[in-house]
Design a protein that fits this description.
6-stranded mixed β-sheet, alpha/beta
């Protein structure tokens, strides 16, 4: 998620992860004191990958829990985001040194050999602490379920958004009566909007922050617009590639047109240009605190449904239970209690731009007053996600293989139709590959719930 230089991503990554975690007051597993906190009789060791603003919001929520539950000693550790985190988590789960609780992107769960590296949640115990299946979007709950068992407790939905400058769009006549961006439902209408916005923008800034040289954002945009076209990836049994190269070419041509028509500048950082007056940028919702702190007059909507169907790329953070040979007892119950508490008190988490997964929070008056969060909350009803397979999910092999291909087309180093064929080839290779965690292909891995 997100552009590294502009938000939470590299606060830890750029300075050695665990070393910085110690300087920020996090207790790294294996290095902290073993003595229980005063008055506590249970310890819960908890790993996460939240740095920057998300890190501070999570710490605040943990401190709220500590004040209300002095009998539970939470030992939280923040590790480097991305593959370093997942590698370390897999090693501890396979070596019986796993923490009691951890965070994982929901799309990565099928690749973690549920039942081997992850333990299933006790839904009865979650219910004891007030969290039930009916409190979540059914799509999220289904994504978190493998072979009938719940392996991820969803915390949020984080989505790619169309951020817009209200001052520029007002000048261009592109705001509706509610002061929000006019609705766009076709590619022609979208480029008409860009044309008018460009006229109203000050000189020296691009019209849209496309981030054409960021392979993650380009892949996420491709997933969104390909889903809008009704594109599919694999057969239901994960034995055949159903990827449509014609639809993929259409999406890649659409992305590239922003550059060739002069609306996006290659190499420009979208968020920086937006703060400096660019009318639009396509960024993740984690840019909300960045733009809030910059005092920008802005709004944010799901990506425009330019191909007719509403779909915005989405991922989710979820709580998981790393495998422990002797999981159970007070620490396991404490992990369930802590995860349930954070999920139920996620309005503070929403300050970072995330959409809470817990629907009672979404329906609260307090959340409805949050701007621009309440403007794009509908994105949870049309999530475009990567296919449910062991190689998918944030920083997974799928994005690593496909992101550079999409980027090559957006940046102009490859023709869209050639890039589409390469994408299909990459999907075929991954489908035939074996998960290094358990030696099984997607068809053998139980990834279909």
């Amino acid at each position: 998620m997100g552009r590294p230089g502009l938000n939470r991503r590299q606060l830890l990554a750029g300075a050695g992860g665990l070393a910085v975690a110690g300087s920020l007051g996090f207790a790294a597993v294996g290095t902290g004191a073993d003595a229980l906190a005063s008055g506590a009789d249970t310890r819960v060791r908890y790993w996460n990958l939240f740095s920057g603003g998300d890190g501070y919001n999570m710490i605040s929520m943990l401190n709220d829990f500590r004040r209300g539950h002095p009998d539970t000693d939470v030992k939280d550790s923040t590790l480097q985001w991305g593959n370093p985190y997942y590698t370390k988590l897999a090693m501890t789960a396979s070596g019986e040194r796993a923490p009691d609780l951890a965070v994982m992107h929901l799309g990565r769960i099928p690749g973690f050999a549920p039942g081997t590296l992850l333990d299933a949640w006790d839904v009865g115990l979650l219910a004891k602490y007030g969290v039930r299946q009916e409190d979540f979007n059914p799509v999220l709950w289904k994504r978190a379920t493998i072979d009938g068992k719940l392996y991820g407790l969803p915390l949020d939905i984080h989505v790619q958004l169309c951020f817009y400058r209200k001052d520029v769009l007002k000048k261009a006549g592109l705001l509706d009566s509610d002061g929000r961006m006019v609705e766009v439902t076709s590619t022609d209408a979208w480029f008409d909007v860009l044309k008018e916005a460009k006229k109203a923008a000050r000189k020296g800034v691009q019209t849209l922050g496309l981030n054409a040289e960021d392979m993650n954002i380009q892949w996420w945009m491709f997933v969104a617009f390909y889903t809008q076209l009704g594109g599919t990836w694999f057969s239901a049994d994960r034995t055949e590639v159903t990827f449509d190269t014609d639809k993929a070419t259409e999406v890649l041509e659409f992305l590239r047109r922003h550059v060739t028509d002069g609306y996006s500048v290659e190499g420009a950082i979208g968020a920086e240009q937006f703060v400096n007056g660019a009318p639009f940028t396509w960024e993740g919702n984690w840019s909300v605190p960045v733009f809030d702190s910059a005092k920008v007059s802005y709004g944010a909507t799901p990506l425009p449904p330019v191909f007719g169907k509403r779909a915005t790329h989405a991922e989710s953070h979820a709580f998981v239970l790393p495998h422990q040979a002797e999981r159970g007892g007070a620490a396991n119950e404490g992990a369930h209690q802590l995860a349930a508490y954070v999920v139920k008190h996620a309005r503070k988490w929403a300050l970072g731009g995330h959409i809470p997964a817990y629907t009672p929070t979404l329906s609260s008056a307090a959340y409805r007053r949050m701007e621009p969060q309440s403007e794009y909350v509908s994105a949870m009803n049309h999530m475009a996600t990567e296919p449910k397979a062991w190689f998918a999910g944030s920083t997974g092999l799928l994005g690593q293989r496909t992101g550079p291909i999409v980027m090559s087309a957006s940046a102009g180093s490859a023709r869209p139709e050639a890039a589409a064929r390469r994408l299909k080839g990459a999907l075929a290779q991954l489908l035939a590959s074996k998960n290094p965690m358990d030696g099984r292909t997607a068809a053998q891995g139980g990834a279909v719930s």
